[in-house]
């Protein structure tokens, strides 16, 4: 019978790290009684997983080569040589430098739909043939290097009327409305909120809701072609019902951690972000104004 033993990894720094830092922590083993083992190893891996949306599969043959996982970092260390672990709780400290080999780049951790950038630590404890090996994994978060260029916050003014709308079949049938406002910046620091304001100056039909929609635009592909997919990250309602005309409505959105990252453009994939201001009229007609965003880390 195998000795009952539990193993997990605990990391310092709240699991957040930057390039050139050391990923440190302890491997915690809790055993009912002393246990023989054949060595404990720890491996670190950083991978970009690309996936095609169902509409893109089969369109480009060349995609099947370009969507293979991209390895960013891979290394292995021996934590303990073969020996015996005493009963009770044992903590084995470790340190792993977060260094890049060659000219590779460490991208920021990002959990998307078609692009996923993930960093994991995996601990393996080898045992005799009759006992099952123990293995545990945990994710740690990598923050990219701060952008070198200085960010200048340039407000972006907007005015939404029937004349400014695109993709309209019968403009004459639209109700009369005028909505104006501004975003304080579209080049945004990822750790700071997106802010601005909006004013409904006039609307012939009642307004049902005003919403902010954050969208990720993920592009996967190669020279032969690209698959570009836009999906919603979050939707925040900033006004409900037929708001007072002439009243300033604040725009405020925090960028969610892990589901956003600094805007990224590489040979095989791109991750970009957009914000939509969506006005829902009482008859459920949607008026949408789109703004591309550039996110970066300071």
Automatic annotation (TrEMBL):
Keyword Kinase recorded: no
InterPro entries to which the protein is assigned, alphabetical: Arrestin-like_C (IPR014752), Vps26-related (IPR028934)
GO BP: any one term: intracellular protein transport
Record's keyword annotation contains Magnesium: no
Residue spans crossing the bilayer: none
Coiled coil: none
Keyword vocabulary terms for this entry: Endosome
Pfam family, one: Vps26
GO CC terms of this entry: endosome
Subcellular location: Endosome
The family this protein is said to belong to: Belongs to the VPS26 family.
Subunit description: Component of the commander complex that is essential for endosomal recycling of transmembrane cargos; the commander complex is composed of the CCC subcomplex and the retriever subcomplex. Component of the heterotrimeric retriever complex consisting of VPS26C, VPS29 and VPS35L; within the complex interacts with VPS35L. Interacts with SNX17 (via C-terminus); the interaction is direct and associates SNX17 with the retriever complex. Interacts with SNX31; the interaction is direct.
Record's function text: Component of the commander complex that is essential for endosomal recycling of transmembrane cargos; the commander complex is composed of the CCC subcomplex and the retriever subcomplex. Component of the retriever complex, which is a heterotrimeric complex related to retromer cargo-selective complex (CSC) and essential for retromer-independent retrieval and recycling of numerous cargos such as integrin alpha-5/beta-1 (ITGA5:ITGB1). The recruitment of the retriever complex to the endosomal membrane involves CCC and WASH complexes.
Protein name, as recorded: Vacuolar protein sorting-associated protein 26C
């Amino acid at each position: 019978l195998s000795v009952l033993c539990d193993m997990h990894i605990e990391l310092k720094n709240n699991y957040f790290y930057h390039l050139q830092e050391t990923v440190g922590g302890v491997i915690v083993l809790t055993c009912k009684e002393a246990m023989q083992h054949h060595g404990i190893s720890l491996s670190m891996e950083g991978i970009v997983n690309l996936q095609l949306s169902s509409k893109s599969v089969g369109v480009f043959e060349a995609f099947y080569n370009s969507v293979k996982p991209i390895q960013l970092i891979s290394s292995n260390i021996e934590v303990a040589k073969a020996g015996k672990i005493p009963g009770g709780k044992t903590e084995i400290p470790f340190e792993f430098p977060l260094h890049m080999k060659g000219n590779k780049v460490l991208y920021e951790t990002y959990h998307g739909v078609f692009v996923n950038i993930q960093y994991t630590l995996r601990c393996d404890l080898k045992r005799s043939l009759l006992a099952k090996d123990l293995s545990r994994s945990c994710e740690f978060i990598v923050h990219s290097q701060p952008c070198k260029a200085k960010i200048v916050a340039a407000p972006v003014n907007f005015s939404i009327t029937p004349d400014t709308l695109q993709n309209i079949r019968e403009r004459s049938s639209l109700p009369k409305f005028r909505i104006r406002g501004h975003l304080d910046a579209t080049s945004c620091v990822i750790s700071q909120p997106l802010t601005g304001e909006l004013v409904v100056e006039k609307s012939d039909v009642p307004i049902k809701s005003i919403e902010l929609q954050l969208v990720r635009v993920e592009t996967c592909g190669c020279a032969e072609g690209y698959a570009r997919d836009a999906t919603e990250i979050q939707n925040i309602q900033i006004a409900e019902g037929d708001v007072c005309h002439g009243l300033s409505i604040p725009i405020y959105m925090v960028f969610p951690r892990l589901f956003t990252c600094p805007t990224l453009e590489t040979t095989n994939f791109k991750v970009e972000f957009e914000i939509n201001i969506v006005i829902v009229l009482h008859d459920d007609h949607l008026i949408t104004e789109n703004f591309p965003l550039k996110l970066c880390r300071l």
